[in-house]
């Protein structure tokens, strides 16, 4: 018998739901058998071809070491495996949607996603997504087909978050990049405008993140470790501008809405983040002129003020360290300028 220690574990924030992670403990009485056969008999919807693809990408570990699909399991082996989810019955319609391409080669593409663009279909968004755009742009590549709702995706960012995404163009690149995100060896730096003057110049926020028990559309921090997923965000204050601050956040883990949830947890919600209370006037004066100023800022940036600014990873074939940087989008720049002008000229 096989003991399931942990299965279907959520991966990183934006890639949560893109990959499955299983951990299995082999029973002491287990006879020797190929690991691809062993796993296909114990993991639902896991064909031997999917398992073999995971092994080829170095994504099956036995006692911490990568093994090939012909490895024979032994009693008390500890097995970890990461696989992409099986194909779903959802036809992707290629759409000629412009892409802001930062870098491209035969293995991958780095895209600067604008705010408002949904990454992949689902929950009522079955067209007009980044995946629809990729299906059109890569219509001649084997990895991209109309029956795969997540072609090449190894991570994702929220609809109203702007910034950098890497997309794989080959199965090898997809597996290699996915492993880096899972192992937390990729580099991801975000910039955000948050409410309030953040007291410390830098700090670390630690707290399990899970779906709110009161509202399933949002997430929250659970101080007790028996609920939610372990999450760590490191932050650094770049600029204090009166009643708001510009901060840089580095993800050590990556849970759904992690930065948005963690910043709210320390009482500094993201500016104009409707899901987490940032679309209210949380700091400042009671003057009508000030309230109108904040409303004008909300119009300038009608979304949470969050941008995926820096992305780094190891190239899946060359082994080269790749690093990309994206300038803050115009709406965030304009919001910062408005706050700077307001603070410089205020009379309160």
Arithmetic mean pLDDT: 85
What's the helix-strand series?
EEHHEEEEEHEHEEEEEEHHEEH
Number of strands: 16
Helix count equals 7
- Uncertain regions: pLDDT < 50 for 5+ in a row? 1-18
How helix-rich are the residues, as a percent range?
A: 10-25%
The CA-CA distance between the termini, in Å, is 71 Å
Strand content: 25-35%
Structural class estimated from helices and strands: alpha+beta
Task: Choose one word for the global shape.
Answer: globular
Return Rg in Å: 22 Å
- Biggest beta-sheet profile: 9 strands, mixed
What does this entry look like structurally?
This protein is of the alpha+beta class and 348 residues long. The chain is built from 7 helices and 16 strands. The chain has helices at 35-40, 48-56, 130-137, 171-183, 258-265, 288-300, 330-345; strands at residues 2-7, 19-26, 60-62, 65-66, 78-84, 101-104, 108-113, 162-168, 187-195, 202-206, 208-211, 219-222, 232-241, 244-251, 306-314, 321-325. α6 (288-300) runs antiparallel to α7. Residues 1-18 have low confidence and may be disordered.
């Amino acid at each position: 018998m096989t003991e399931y220690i942990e299965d279907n574990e959520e991966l990183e924030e934006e890639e949560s739901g893109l990959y499955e992670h299983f951990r299995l403990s082999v029973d002491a009485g287990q006879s020797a058998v190929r690991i691809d056969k062993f796993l296909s008999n114990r993991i639902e919807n896991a064909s031997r071809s999917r398992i073999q693809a995971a092994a080829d990408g170095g994504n099956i570990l036995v006692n911490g070491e990568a093994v090939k699909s012909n490895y024979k399991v032994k009693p008390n082996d500890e097995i970890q495996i990461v696989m992409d989810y099986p194909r779903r019955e959802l036809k992707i319609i290629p759409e000629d949607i412009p892409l802001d391409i930062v870098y491209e080669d035969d293995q991958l593409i780095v895209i600067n996603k604008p705010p408002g663009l949904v990454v992949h279909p689902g929950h009522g968004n079955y067209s007009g997504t980044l995946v629809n755009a990729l299906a059109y742009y890569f219509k001649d590549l084997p990895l991209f087909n109309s029956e795969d709702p997540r072609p090449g995706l190894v991570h994702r960012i929220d609809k109203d978050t702007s910034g950098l995404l890497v997309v794989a163009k080959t199965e090898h690149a997809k597996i290699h990049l996915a492993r880096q995100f899972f192992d937390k060896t990729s580099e991801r730096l975000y910039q955000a405008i948050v409410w309030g003057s953040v007291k410390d110049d830098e700090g670390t926020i630690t707290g399990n993140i899970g779906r709110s028990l009161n509202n399933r559309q949002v997430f929250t921090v659970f101080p007790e470790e028996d609920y939610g997923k372990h999450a760590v965000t490191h932050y650094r204050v770049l600029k204090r501008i009166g009643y708001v601050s510009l901060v840089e956040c580095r993800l050590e883990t990556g849970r759904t809405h992690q930065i948005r949830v963690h910043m709210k947890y320390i009482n500094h919600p993201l500016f104009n983040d409707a899901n987490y209370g940032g679309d209210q006037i949380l700091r400042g004066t009671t003057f009508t002129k000030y309230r109108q100023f904040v409303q004008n800022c909300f119009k300038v940036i009608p979304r949470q003020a969050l941008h995926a600014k820096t992305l780094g990873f190891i190239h899946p074939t060359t082994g080269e360290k790749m690093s990309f940087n994206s300038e803050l989008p115009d709406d965030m720049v304009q919001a910062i300028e408005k706050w700077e002008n307001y603070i410089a000229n205020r009379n309160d």
